[in-house]
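User: Show me an example of a complex going from sequences to C-alpha cells.

Assistant: Sure. Here are the input components:
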Amino acid sequence: QKEVEQNSGPLSVPEGAIASLNCTYSDRGSQSFFWYRQYSGKSPELIMFIYSNGDKEDGRFTAQLNKASQYVSLLIRDSQPSDSATYLCAVNDLEYGNKLVFGAGTILRVKS
Amino acid sequence: DTAVSQTPKYLVTQMGNDKSIKCEQNLGHDTMYWYKQDSKKFLKIMFSYNNKELIINETVPNRFSPKSPDKAHLNLHINSLELGDSAVYFCASSPTSSSGANVLTFGAGSRLTVL
C-alpha cells in the first residue's frame, strides 16, 4: 500500500511569514504530486501540482520536489489569515488505475 | 454553474437502512471517483470509473455499490448502513491525462450520519 505522510500540525505562523508544509511518500515510482487546500466543512481544491524535481512557483505558492529523497513541500509566502486551512498532499499511484493517494493533511493556522 | 454536483448534501439515517448519493459533472471529464473522508479527515479512494467502466475498486465492503449510467454520472448506493459508514463522501472527476497526472475536481461532499 502506497503511503503519503504529513505532519498533522497544527502549524501556526504569524501573518506575513512563510509557511512551510512537508510531505513524504513511499513509492519511488510516483510521478505526479499535488497540493490541495481544504477549508473546514468544504471540499478539497487544487492549489498546484508538480512533476519535475526542483521548484514550481504560482503566485505566493511554491512547490518543491525532491524525488531522490521522496519528499515534496509547499511554501506559502506572505501568509494570510485566509490561508488557514488543511493542506493535503497527494501522490499518484500508477500501479493501480492511476489513483491519487492522499496524506492525512496538515492544519495551518495563520495568526493576525 | 456547478462543475461537480452531489445530492444530497446531508443524510441522517438509521442503522440498517439503504441510501444513495448521486453525482453529476458537467466538465466533460472521462473519469469519476468516490472518496470517503472520515472523522480524522483522512481522504481515501473507494471507486473510480472511466467512461462507465470500473477501474478502481478499493477494499470496500460489498454493501457499497457504485453505478455509472454514463460518463457524466456516478452514483453510490449503500446497503445495510452501519455506524462506521458515517463520513463525508466526496465525488470527484478528472480528465484523462497522457502525462498520467489526475487533476481532481471535487464536489461539495455528502455528509452521511448513521444513528
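The lines above are the inputs; the final block is the predicted structure for all two components together. The first strand of chain A starts at residue 4 and ends at 6.
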